[in-house]
Specification:
The protein is α/β, with parallel strands linked by helices. The protein folds into two domains: about 375 residues, Rossmann fold; about 325 residues, Glycogen Phosphorylase B (Rossmann fold). The chain is built from 34 helices and 24 strands. The strands form six sheets. It has a nine-stranded mixed beta sheet, sandwiched between helices. The two termini are about 45 Å apart. The structure holds N-[oxo(pyridin-2-ylamino)acetyl]-beta-D-glucopyranosylamine. The site of N-[oxo(pyridin-2-ylamino)acetyl]-beta-D-glucopyranosylamine (475) has 22 residues, from helix 7.
């Protein structure tokens, strides 16, 4: 059925097409219209929630107008598109970002003020879109912002979880998880009830030869679940390009419950069917850097991958091109191994549904996909049990076996007789039960594999994927160092700093070309500039101090050194090293004379982050931090010299308050474990220094900003293996200062020491896998250097200015351009200036 309006009627359409507002009056008109009609309220019945809803709807209308135009433009141009498949998109709030990206925040501010509201209060009404755990999900969100800002035709595909990452409450020092139901009111999504895909599970495979003698496989039986599309507009910064993030929501095939069953009296089972289907997109798995191999997770993965590929293939088929052109039109990036089934699904579509030969299909598949690895931690590498696979996706398992057979045959040809090699690289692990190794499948089915920082990309080539470098050659493996969007992480989070930079570099151009920050170098010793710079940092610290007071009741001195570690709680990230260091500082202060205490730089140690609900050691670390805070914060000997804060429920919107307020932040993972880290980049970009190990992107940050401007410490990645070996097979004596810290914990100084036995024991008795003791001395020494350096504020400020000036490399725009050139082979689609963008500078 032809859905497009016939030529003669199109003039009427053009005449009445929605025009995005650009003036304050038009914005106010839209807000009032939405309050009065969409929300059915009035000026006598309009609270901040309603004002937030109306303002968002006004901006949503605006975005969707540009979204429509962008999609039309991209369809007509018919150039290559990128599809970014990610099980996580940690977007945070949308309103502030939309206002800034379309350049209308000041207009909205004045408009809202005329209508009786403060814009900050309105922005704060929004619930975060928290469809992610941490770094991997936030990276996907930064990438969407960059792809739109750079005018790439690009879509994100994900799952529309009903519950995002849980909300964290701290009760008596313990983490308690509360469900995050965020869809109560979400103006940013457009349900597409006409875009529904059937997704099949279970069943069996029937094989036969057709009349022409061709082998045919039919996957039949089982059950069908429906995937409905929800679209979220992604506005680029200062460009009309508005891309799409399409999230799938699951429903039972019968729509509601099965009326057959219902009428025949089997009400309960009909409701159960429906609930089972809806369970698929119900909840985000809350594990960061951990694979638990649960069947529902595999169901989520296939549900999302099948719906997305059906959608992508349907769009391609409309162009009537030959299948061989598929990779010229489409690049699909796999955000970690979570979407690896897409490789198998595309091969299945091509051979089973479209009748292509295996080889022809496989060439298309491998030229389409790229795979990004985000972790080397063994417990995070995905494996699925073969029996589970066999039951849920029987045809896919067969195809995986065929992929593996052809792959192993090619390895055998290249390395004849090397049976060990075959065992090591097989996609099927010969364990009990057998397991499908998803990373190996992703490598074999992609044309490029990348790590996310130089050290990490080197490590995957020399450790977990070493054999594959031999097999495919080194060119298949590359590095794209992560980046962050300066729009959210500078302009939005730190408006005053952004304004100061704009005033010195000739406008907001630096937000599109972050290397322009270089121009700040000439102000590194400028008295006036340094004063303004320092004032902004202080104001950001005051803002955080107020937030700390209002949420924890603890008063902190904004003049103290703010030392921040916010990220998921994980042993490899070593929040335990930080809190042991804090306890060491506490001991030191207690042992000082009043005169000595006067010379010490006051410090506030701030922690934040969620522990996976089943990760006991991480929860123990949170408990210890809170208990240390309870003791230290009320010790009169200590006063302002040390405060220990745990901020509840760390998330993207809180990060926007926290990040601009650091003096130092901690990125102290055991060398070789943190693939990149991205908050390290955010903190430096906001004028904070960092204390860190030689790990992930810390190394490239050092290269860019200079080693005088960073506090590095600890053992190197190359030495980790030997140290671990010595712990287990040689002698293992703990650092004497760490022993004192443990003694204090064991004296019940922070509550019943039994609660922390597993934590101290992992270091004392179980090999100290994360090298806490090995790095402790160097950590404490470096913290002393931080204290000393902070006393010289003039030099400190200069260091922070120079650092910011040199951070251009870490824009996610640079990152996306690298993907586009090295992996996707796509070009931006230029836009005319026809659209009504705001002209705010
Ligand atoms: C790295 N999550 C950061 C960031 O590249 C890096 C894995 C398996 C199952 C569930 N979650 C995961 C990750 O691996 C992850 O978040 N990795 C992170 O990716 C972006 O900056 O160093 O830890």
């Amino acid at each position: 059925v032809e859905a497009s309006i016939p030529e003669p009627q199109r003039d009427a359409w053009k005449k009445f097409q929605a025009k995005p507002f650009v003036s304050k009056d038009d914005f106010e008109k839209e807000v009032v219209r939405h309050v009065e009609t969409t929300l059915a309220r009035s000026m006598f019945n309009c609270d901040e929630t309603a004002a937030y809803a109306a303002a968002s709807l006004a901006f949503r209308d605006r975005l969707i107008t540009e979204w429509n135009r962008t999609q039309q433009r991209q369809t007509f141009a018919d150039t290559k598109r990128v599809y970014y498949l990610s099980l996580e998109f940690l977007m945070g709030r949308a309103l502030d970002n939309a206002m800034l990206n379309v350049g209308l925040k000041n207009i909205a501010k004045e408009g809202l003020s005329e209508l009786g509201f403060r814009i900050e209060d309105i922005i704060n009404q929004e619930h975060d879109a928290a469809l992610g755990n941490g770094g991997l999900g936030r990276l996907a969100a930064c990438f969407l912002d960059s792809m739109a800002s750079l005018n790439f035709p690009a879509w994100g595909y994900g799952l529309r979880y009903k519950y995002g990452i849980f909300k964290q409450e701290i009760v008596d020092g313990y983490q308690v998880e509360v469900p995050d139901y965020w869809l109560d009111f979400n103006p940013w999504e457009f349900p597409r009830h006409d875009i529904v895909v059937d997704v099949q599970f279970y069943g069996g495979v029937r094989k036969y030869q057709d009349e022409a003698g061709k082998n045919v496989a039919v996957w039949e039986g089982g059950e069908i679940v429906k995937a409905t599309a929800y679209d979220v507009p992604i506005p680029g910064f200062n460009t009309p390009t508005t891309n799409n993030m399409r999230l799938w929501s699951s429903k039972a095939a019968s729509g509601e419950f099965d009326f057959q069953k219902f009428n025949s009296g089997d009400y309960e089972s009909s409701v159960a069917d429906q609930q089972r289907a809806e369970t698929i997109s119900a909840v985000l798995y809350p594990n960061d850097n951990l694979d638990r191999g649960k069947e529902l997770r595999l169901k989520q993965q296939y549900f999302w991958v099948a719906a997305s590929l059906y959608d992508i293939v349907r769009r391609f088929k409309k162009s009537k091109r030959a299948w061989s052109e598929f990779p010229d039109q489409i690049a699909i990036q796999l955000n970690d191994t979570h979407p690896t089934l897409a490789i198998v699904e595309l091969q299945r579509i091509l051979i089973d549904m479209e009748g292509l030969d295996w080889d022809e299909a496989w060439t298309i598949v491998t030229n389409t996909f790229g795979y990004t690895n985000h972790t080397v931690l063994p417990e995070a590498l995905e494996k699925w049990s073969v029996p589970l696979f066999q039951n849920l996706l029987p045809r896919h398992l067969q195809i995986i076996y065929d992929i593996n057979m052809f792959f192993l045959q090619s390895v055998e040809r290249k390395f004849p007789g090397d049976r060990d090699m075959l065992g090591r690289v097989s996609i099927i692990e010969e364990s009990q039960p057998k397991m499908v190794r998803m990373a190996f499948l992703a490598i074999v089915g992609s044309h490029k594999v990348n790590g996310v920082a130089e050290l990490h990309s080197d490590l995957i080539k020399t450790t977990i994927f070493k054999d594959f470098v031999k097999i495919f050659g080194p060119d298949k493996f590359t590095n794209v160092t992560n980046g962050i969007t300066p729009r959210r992480w500078l302009h939005q989070a730190n408006p005053r700093l952004s304004e100061l930079i704009a005033s010195k570099t000739g406008g907001l151009g630096f937000l599109k070309d972050l290397n322009v920050l270089n121009e700040l170098e000439k102000f590194a010793d400028d008295k006036e500039f340094k004063k303004e710079w320092a004032e902004i940092k202080y104001a950001n610290k005051v803002r955080l101090a107020k937030y700390i007071k209002s949420t924890t009741g603890v008063t902190v001195n904004p003049a103290a050194l703010f030392d921040i570690q916010v990220k998921r709680i994980h042993e490899y990230k070593r929040q335990q090293l930080n809190i042991f260091g804090v306890i060491h500082r506490y001991l030191t202060i207690k042992a000082m004379t009043p005169e000595e205490r006067k010379k010490l730089a006051p410090r506030v140690s701030i922690f934040g982050g969620k522990a996976a609900p089943g990760y006991w050691m991480a929860k123990t670390i949170i408990h210890l931090i809170n208990n240390v805070g309870a003791v230290v914060n009320k010790d009169p000997d200590v006063g302002d010299l040390l405060k220990v804060i745990f901020l509840e429920d760390y998330n993207v919107s809180k990060a926007e308050i926290i990040t601009p307020a650091s003096d130092v932040s901690e990125h102290i993972s055991t060398a070789g474990t943190e693939a990149s880290g991205t908050s390290n980049m955010k903190f430096v970009l906001n004028g904070g220094l960092i204390i860190g190990t030689c790990d992930g992107a810390n190394i490239e940050i050092t290269r860019e900003i200079g080693e005088n401007n960073i506090f590095l410490f600890g053992n190197l990645a190359e030495d980790v293996e030997d140290l671990r070996h010595t712990h287990n097979y040689g002698s293992h004596t703990l650092d004497p200062d760490l022993v004192k810290v443990f003694d204090l914990i064991k004296s019940n100084a922070f509550g019943d020491a039994g609660a922390f036995g597993a934590l101290t024991g992992s270091i004392e008795d179980h090999g100290d896998y994360y090298l806490v003791s090995d790095d402790f001395h160097s950590y404490i020494q470096t913290q002393t250097l931080v204290d000393e350096a902070y006393k010289n504020q003039e030099e400190w400020i200069t260091k922070t200015i120079l650092s910011v000036a040199r951070m251009g490399f870490f824009s996610s725009d640079r990152c996306i351009n690298e993907y586009a050139e090295m992996i996707w082979n796509v070009e931006p689609l230029p836009v005319g200036k026809e659209s009504g963008l705001g002209k705010e500078e």
